[in-house]
Specification:
two-stranded antiparallel sheet; single chain; 28% strand; 6 strands; Alpha-Beta Plaits; 2 helices
Length: 108
Amino acid sequence: MGRRLYVGNIPYNTGEAELQELFGRAGNVESVRVMRDAATGRARGFAFVEMATDEEAERAASEFNQYQLGGRALTVNEARPKPEGGFGGGGGFGGNRAGGGGRREPRW
């Protein structure tokens, strides 16, 4: 397991300091980043926590997965790398596609 953890289903009012303290019970926390909406600054309900070692990350994942925080059960597992392209690969938006668009009715 890697050192970086995904922490999902966190209450929207949870900040970095609270997660730092919680995950500090499992070992040394190197960084905490609560993900926020770029436009509003509102928390998006998930965060990334990086532990000092793989062992500490594994301990934190097993200890805090399904942990109740603010009435919500946390989801904690190893963070997966972001897929290249940002939209989950293939397809996506835009591109140089002709826009044909729908059925055309004949004009009389």
